[in-house]
Amino acid sequence: MFTYGTVKNLPDYSGDKKAGTRTSATIFHSLGNAVRFSGILLFTPYILLTTFIAVGSLAPIYLADLGMGLIFVVIFSGMLKAKSSQELEKAHTFGFFYAISFILFTLVLTSPTLASIIVILSAYLWTLLVHLQHSPRSSSFSLHISGPSSSPVLAWTLGLRTVTGRSLGGRRREQRPSR
Q: What count of other Cβ atoms lies within 10 Å of the Cβ of residue 128?
């Protein structure tokens, strides 16, 4: 999850750069370099995982985590191809779900019990319910969205930005009147 923190700054690269806000993304001269840096950091758990297995610190069962690498490749290629903040936000949303899935899958490998499977199913059910409740199609939520969105996380952040009056770059925005 620590390495994933760099991805959250990518959608706001342009605004943060203009505002002079230093983030893990804006320290790079281009968005492409920031995306590649994030990809390298996101790949480090796989290096650590295989190293710990090779030296005997982890059981070979954890090699199953390497299967999550295929999902990582799809998300990373989406990040590289993204041409807008909204596309990066979509990759960020899927990436966050991937990071949580990696942790939950590792939980099952650590403790393959009915209880761990119930925890995973509960987490996915909760994620689905949050997604449905905060979907842009939801009339009660969409009243607070200040623009079109392609993901529930983007919709939530747009709503949060409107409520707080600040963009993620920290610049003050004009607040909308409350309804």
A: 10
Q: pLDDT class for 2, splitting at 50, 70, 90?
A: low
Report yes or no on 32 lying in a domain.
Answer: yes
54: Cβ–Cβ under 8 A, 6 or more apart, which residues? none
174 within domain boundaries: no
Which of 7-16, 125-134, 137-146: highest mean pLDDT? 7-16
Number of domains in the chain: 1
Is residue 124 exposed (0-12), middle (13-18) or buried (19+ Cβ within 10 Å)? Answer: middle
Burial (CB count within 10 angstroms: exposed 0-12, middle 13-18, buried 19+), residue 51:
exposed
The answer to whether residue 123 is domain-embedded is: yes
Residue 60 three-state SS: helix
Give the closest residue to 153 by CA, choosing from 176, 126, 131. Answer: 131
Q: Is residue 102 domain-resident?
A: yes
